[in-house]
Specification:
2 domains, Rossmann fold, six-stranded parallel beta sheet, about 35% helix, nine-stranded mixed beta sheet, 17 strands
């Protein structure tokens, strides 16, 4: 099977290494083209800076998109599908933004669009959901889907450090980008929640409909308050069925120390699914980086090689229905003082709300003129 690789950066370089060194020798998979930027030196005879070279080669069966970003990745993937090629991508932001369009083309052309590397790196998370769905009705999923923020929060918890210091350290180690916005504001997790909902529920929720609150405003005082009350702060993405439909959100959570998520440290990911027969199943592993993501991408290529005619499931676009969702929320920072009327009077040492609809909290937050407070949901436990 001949493969065209778009991009030779972190993930693309890992894919090339795995195929060339581990699989290429068997002849089962062969990278025949590598798309590079025009300014990139052509250090490999397979390199080209003209996408038309790839689309014009009838022997290319799979296009692997490892460019990242929205464009030109979206255009290249669309054109590959339209030309009757299978596509593998780890680009969660692009896939979440354009999934209905790309799925429709894949179904029309009877080709596969796979994206295991987009969520949870090499766990593999999406494959686990697919296996569950063969037998079970999946009720919900929830977990840590961003290694950068988990690294920051874990180190703040263990070392008592400030957010800015831990973010800088994460950047030095390569866990966080120079512009960390997508990670620390929850947007990266939002894309992953969108794609997880596609796999779990056959439902597409527009990313912008999924409320996303990150950890930008978390402080050492928030970490200390959580610890003193038996909680650990984690950034959690979740999706679940309600009586009204499908609901999804991204928000920091104060998880009980008895919860497995509280003990998942460093840059690891950990995500659980709840289903009828199996109950709660949890998957933990490296959620990002060159090797885990490249491993997931190559697994998708092998799946296509083994089952090229397996049709893509139909997916319905759905509203993100928050109407029945309620919770108890922790708020801190100067802007939180304007929401003091929401406080549970039985917890005087912090602004912890009464149990309230999430939609009401979101409406109140949307009316704040100043920067948002740090917002986190409290896991409900039997300790009250």
């Amino acid at each position: 099977m001949k493969i065209a690789l778009l991009g030779i950066g972190t993930v693309g370089g890992g894919v090339r290494q795995i195929i060339d060194q581990a699989l290429g020798m068997t002849g089962r998979l062969q990278i025949s083209h590598i798309l590079i930027r025009p300014e990139h030196d052509k250090t490999d005879p397979r390199m080209t800076d003209d996408y038309a070279d790839i689309l014009g080669d009838p022997e290319v069966e799979v296009v692997v998109e490892a460019i990242g970003g929205l464009e030109p990745a979206h255009t290249y993937v669309r054109q590959a599908l339209e030309s009757g090629r299978h596509v593998v991508s780890s680009n969660k932001k692009m896939l979440a933004a354009y999934y209905p369009e790309l799925l429709a083309i894949a179904r029309q052309k009877n080709v596969r669009l796979l994206y295991e590397g987009s969520c949870g790196g090499g766990i593999p998370w999406l494959a686990a959901l697919a296996r569950l769905k063969r037998i079970d009705h999946i009720q919900s999923f929830q977990g840590i889907l961003n290694g950068t923020t988990n690294y920051i929060l874990s180190n703040m918890t263990e070392k008592g450090r400030d957010f800015a210091e831990m973010l800088s350290q994460a950047q030095e180690l390569g866990y966080a980008e120079a512009d960390p916005t997508d990670d620390i504001d929850g947007l990266d997790v939002r894309s992953k929640v969108c794609l997880s909902a596609v796999q779990a529920f056959d439902a597409y929720l527009k990313p912008e409909s999924i409320p996303a609150y990150g950890i930008r405003h978390v402080t050492a005082q928030d970490i200390a308050w959580a610890g003193a009350h038996g909680y650990t702060i984690k950034l959690v993405g979740s999706g679940y069925r309600t009586e009204q439909g499908i609901c999804a959100q991204v928000m920091p959570m104060l998880v009980s120390d008895r919860n497995l998520l509280a003990h998942v440290g460093a840059n690891l990911n950990a995500v659980s699914a709840s289903s009828d027969t199996l109950g709660v199943s949890t998957y933990i592993g490296q959620g990002a980086g060159r090797n885990p993501t490249a491993h997931a991408v190559v697994q998708d290529i092998l799946e296509i090689a083994e089952q090229p005619q397996l049709p893509m499931n139909e997916v319905q676009t759905a509203e993100n229905d928050l109407s029945g969702v309620q919770g108890v929320y922790y708020l801190s920072g100067r802007p939180a003082e304007t929401l003091r009327d929401l406080q549970n009077p039985d917890i005087p040492d912090a602004l912890v709300t009464r149990k309230m609809p999430l939609a009401e909290l979101l409406e109140r937050l949307s009316k704040l003129d100043s920067q948002l407070p740090f917002v986190a949901q409290l896991e409900e436990t039997d300790k009250g």
